[in-house]
């Protein structure tokens, strides 16, 4: 249970906006100077640091950080198989 609480608190810290002006806010990476106005961009960027790969191919051992990377690889593989 403490692990879930710890994980949640880290996630909350990651995505709190940092107000640099009255109009805009930025989300910042905790590992490097990267920041963005879009929280999803920062979440995806953080995966480059954590090396977390949630999306696994059903046919081989490859894993991907983002779902669309898995989808692209699967489509390319299907095209290659059908060309033969």
From TrEMBL:
Gene3D superfamilies: Classic Zinc Finger (3.30.160.60). Keywords: Metal-binding, Zinc, Zinc-finger. Residues 27-54 form the C2H2-type domain. InterPro entries: Znf_C2H2_sf, Znf_C2H2_type. GO terms for molecular function: zinc ion binding. PROSITE patterns: ZINC_FINGER_C2H2_2. This is C2H2-type domain-containing protein. It comes from Caerostris extrusa.
